[in-house]
Design goal:
The chain is mainly α. It is built from 16 helices and four strands. Helix 4 crosses helix 13.
Length: about 400
């Protein structure tokens, strides 16, 4: 048993997270009399929690490097306000307004990254100041709600891919089913290549039995999810495509590039990373530029879904993103965390929100439950570290 655990390595934690998600889904599926996994509810789950997934992808990079970002909710409100005003007050094309929002988000990240990387102010202080600054700017810019955006823009957060292939059995969207098959195939191929690469370089690999079980389980989840989603009113939400592209891109960035390895090195042992030649200032600077850029994407998604820009947008978004990271296996001390893990963490939070809402649980108690889940996730991580002696 111990040899199997050792060969699995960090994957043990990931299996635990996926198992927790599975148990929570089953629990609420029973408690809600099957309402949780109704196709339209599954589509709503994705649309309502897309912002958490997008922000969590950037936040896990920040946390792995040993930092924290408390400003992302305020940045979402600020950038969303600018994008809304660009379309409503200045009559800009929605595509141009979106591009302005993404650039503005990156500039905000560069501003904060400069203070962290080159001045040496702790990220906690810089982003706490940013939380106040950009929330204030959002209130100044968006004194009243700004709405009346083009339908094409609103479709980003609420729309679905057009059904160009028709339906299977009269109700299953073939586009969604095809995307599910392609995703499952891509997953199997990537896992096969990764395993072959490890074997080729004579590195430790996961036991064949557990590897096969993982492939079957994940592939089944992908296909099952696409089957349920294909029965929803719209099929595949556009935001799911956006999130999917980000997951693939950032999983590659963190796992297969020098920049990603430098982030893990900094979080694991900063002094060792410096001695090994990592330009920590440059890496930190780009980490926060990236966080600002993703906050810009989240701002576009949030504003388009609401159909309006409001100064109060993004409230507690930073807490949602941070919670998703820690629930998804990121270490409090830095150096550990995966994009796939934080997506599962975001889904756990989303399922909790939706399940408790279906059960008509008071919002105050929903906050209590989410807080307990976060505390349990961090405690589990720390206890595991003590047991393993790391």
């Amino acid at each position: 048993m111990s040899s199997i655990r050792a060969s699995l390595g960090g994957n043990v934690r990931q299996y635990g997270i996926i198992g927790a998600l599975f148990v929570i889904v089953l629990l609420f599926q029973v408690l809600t009399d099957g309402k949780l996994l109704m196709p339209n509810n599954v589509a709503s789950l994705i649309q309502q929690n897309a912002y958490v997934m997008i922000l969590a992808i950037g936040m896990v990079m920040v946390i792995v490097a040993g930092h924290i970002d408390l400003s992302v909710g305020s940045v979402v409100a600020f950038v969303g306000g600018v994008v809304g005003l660009a379309m409503d007050k200045h009559g800009l094309n929605w595509i141009l307004a979106v591009l302005i929002g993404l650039v503005l988000g990156a500039l905000v990240g560069a501003w904060q990254g400069y203070w962290v990387a080159y001045i040496g102010i702790p990220a906690f202080i810089v982003t706490l100041a940013g939380m106040l600054i950009f929330r204030g700017l959002a209130i100044v810019l968006v004194g009243v709600t700004v709405s009346g955006f083009p339908d094409e823009f609103n479709q980003i957060g609420t729309g679905s891919l057009p059904n160009t292939l028709g339906y299977l059995l009269g109700e299953k969207d073939l586009v969604t089913l095809l995307l599910g098959l392609l995703t499952a195939g891509a997953f199997l191929f990537s896992q096969y290549r990764a395993r072959r690469s490890l074997i080729k370089h004579e590195l430790q690999v996961e036991p064949v039995v557990s590897f096969a079980i993982r492939l079957v389980v994940v592939t089944g989840l992908i296909l099952g999810f696409s089957w349920i989603l294909s029965g929803s009113a719209g099929g595949t939400p556009i935001v799911l495509i956006i999130v999917g592209v980000l997951i693939v891109a950032y999983s590659f960035l963190m796992g297969r590039t020098i920049f990603g390895r430098h982030i893990y090195a900094m979080g694991g042992n900063l002094n060792a990373a410096i001695l090994s030649g990592v330009d920590t200032k440059k890496v930190n600077f780009w980490i926060f530029i990236n966080m600002g850029f993703l906050a810009g994407i989240a701002a576009v998604v949030t504003t388009s879904r609401a159909g309006a820009a409001v100064a109060g947008a993004g409230q507690n978004y930073e807490l949602d993103a941070i919670s998703a990271c820690f629930i998804g296996g990121a270490a409090v001390t830095g150096g550990v965390g995966r994009v796939s893990g934080v997506i599962v963490g975001a889904l756990i939070m989303g399922v909790l929100n939706m399940g408790l809402s279906i059960l008509s649980v008071d919002p105050a108690w929903q906050q209590v439950f989410k807080g307990l889940v976060l505390l349990a996730a961090v405690a589990f991580d720390l206890i595991n570290k003590r047991r393993s002696g790391t």
